[in-house]
Amino acid sequence: MSSVRQIAGELGISVATVSRAMNQHAGVSEETRKRVLMAADKYQYRPSMGRKPTNVIGLVYPEEPVHSDIGDFEAALLSGILRGVYEKNHDLTFISAARDKHVDETYTQFFHRKGVRAIIMRSLGDTSLVEQIAAEEFPILLVADRSDDPRVNFIHSTSGDTSRKAVQHLVELGHKRIGLAMHNVVDTDHEDRKAGYMNALTEAGIAVDADLIVEAEANTSGGESMLTSLLQLDNPPTAVYFTNPMSTIGALHKCLKLGLNVPRDLSIVGFDDSVTRLQSFPRYTAVCQDAVSLGEEAARWITTAAQNESQSVFREVRPTTFEIQESTAYPSMTPARIDADGNLVHTV
Amino acid sequence: MSSVRQIAGELGISVATVSRAMNQHAGVSEETRKRVLMAADKYQYRPSMGRKPTNVIGLVYPEEPVHSDIGDFEAALLSGILRGVYEKNHDLTFISAARDKHVDETYTQFFHRKGVRAIIMRSLGDTSLVEQIAAEEFPILLVADRSDDPRVNFIHSTSGDTSRKAVQHLVELGHKRIGLAMHNVVDTDHEDRKAGYMNALTEAGIAVDADLIVEAEANTSGGESMLTSLLQLDNPPTAVYFTNPMSTIGALHKCLKLGLNVPRDLSIVGFDDSVTRLQSFPRYTAVCQDAVSLGEEAARWITTAAQNESQSVFREVRPTTFEIQESTAYPSMTPARIDADGNLVHTV
DNA sequence: GATTCAAAGCGTAACAGTTTCATTTTGAAG
DNA sequence: CTTCAAAATGAAACTGTTACGCTTTGAATC
After folding, report:
1. Domain range spanning residue A133?
2. Domain identity same for A184 and A204
3. pTM for the complete prediction?
């Protein structure tokens, strides 16, 4: 195995020049650089030590190995993060703290050992890890969640206000019994959506009915089951707000199977992270957040934070938008419900 | 800024011990390790040089920055890769060859500089880059594509045979005019699917009609437009095979909009990378590949290849499966088509 | 109880690459 | 021809790692 010294000796130049040439540093003539690189190739030179790759951002998930498949939101977020990171000439690497961190190591030591300069972190509800890392003053950005800890940087979307607007829209159409179908894992975003729902009802003078609030997993079968249980109520809702894209899709699918016409028999407001609302039948009215640009913005901030040491706390809250599509209309005169046999009936 | 020597001096031990302690190497007592790590934390020690993080697999995409959003297939593949890589105690990092590689550098030099030991590569049709890297004998695995170059390792799914089976299924149901709706970007997988379609028709003694083969982008609007142009033919198909999940979804969506009943008025066979076929209305009959396990297997192989130097060529071809769901049936007696005004009509 | 022996723990010194700073070279302006 | 600044380079100092050898420890064996 060859070393910089051998190559330097071979070419009759100094090790410093070889090192500079290998690392694309300035101060080496183009001709010397080529000679060095060719010699390195010829002697199969492999740096055995060398500076750690710089400009690397770590992406940390709370659980390892990534146990569930990467969903719609995660994929869109990752797209954005990658784009932002590339734009700023950084690389992105997945880090598994759960697997690789030694107990006695501080997080800062761990990340330095892994060769990352800063961290983008996803937290599924539990922000204690982020807070711990932020306390060490290692550059970290929590994405798509928030924390009360004053040291934690985060960027997320608020869907509380837009959720209120969405439910108001239903109220204005004349709906009085409006269901809420939520994710059964509590995080701040879903809390906000629930709060928005409550506020809209309270403002409209409509009492909140606990029966109309259901929870399930954030996937299509969760959506189906939530729709089913809502429609099995004696006094079913005429409109439902699904706070998650996949459950919205599942619910719409279930409606098609039941032969229930959306929006004539039931109005549905959904949630969308990307463009799912436009790819369903019917296209659904939704509270929309742009996960791609959330990721992009996160990457842009963390890359600059990785370079300028002391940065002030960053807390960006991005608005969500409310977009009316084809899944909401005036309430049905004869609200649909599912009877004991699982059949669709219309109440009078 | 402190160094290993300062810490060693402070604790009255040697630099070797400090170095070993910092890198979780054996040969250091637990007590000494703790003292070192605490001192390192106290003096804010940051290794300025140090060994590059080992056990890192690079993920390379042909185009940079990842210009399109990460789609269904890419997300599923990435899930699998991550899981496989984690399982083998490696890390995964995104590498941008287009952006960072210096022209005079060999790929091997470039990857060493980036600190990656092996590469998983996606190629969208053009395999010349993989071949070039494989020629340097750098460990690389092409995933979800293949190459004729005898040095290239690859893992992919064959959908040719299963596509033939899918079209045979339609033939057996009685269909004679069967459309093919393809991705307009040529890669080996889509070539195979087309070949399977052709074979099935030829075997059944049905002449291939070029009018029935259409191409568009692999997304929902591509699916819609392909369906539309097929149904606008004077002699429209009674069944169509869509070789891509998103275009299948787009076509099904378009059918719902047109009021065209699938499978009564038109049979549709689609393609699925994960579980999309079960989340549509109706659930669609599909040629299915498991992108997650493809990624897992890819990660497992490349991690072992990254360690044992000379490995024999690896070429795994995974079967796809054909799954009958609700979108295929006997051909309609009155095939549907779209007239000049864009309305649905039934031919007699 | 003495002996043996292997493993664990640690230090010295050699080694790998990088970077600072001084020196030389180059090239263009005066 | 001189001057001077920028570019290119080298010597030496510096960073972190590792091979190898020494010491200690503790348990098995005689």
Report:
1. 56-157+292-318
2. yes
3. 0.88
